[in-house]
């Protein structure tokens, strides 16, 4: 199916866990497959069918449905939610906050024995400093040390490091 246009109205739904990703209401301006919408919003067809209580695979022109908000920026060539799909919105916000405080968001920032966007000890990267690997290492480090990015931010606010 060709390109389709969507008119987006922001809202938080009570039908879906809003802590994972905000939801938006979309209206299609031409007949559109759920497969195309699922791909566009990086979700599953089954999720779209479930949260909208529908069985159709193709939506007629003018149809409106609820979808998870799509990522709004990219990290390198990788969509934010691909790297952080398991993060709640509060954890994603805390992670972004820490990155800005630690490196100004730069994957190549260096401060002594710490490197990258999250200023993590160089030894933890095993020589792989790619943005994708930095994201994975940072998520693992924070999960094992603090349990969440929100907890890491709270520690940072108290100690000015994490």
UniProtKB/TrEMBL annotation:
SMART domains: LysM (SM00257). Coiled coil: none annotated. Gene3D superfamilies: LysM domain. Residues 25-68 form the LysM domain. SUPFAM superfamilies: LysM domain. It comes from the Bacteria. This is LysM domain-containing protein. The lineage of its organism: Bacteria, Bacillati, Bacillota, Bacilli, Lactobacillales.
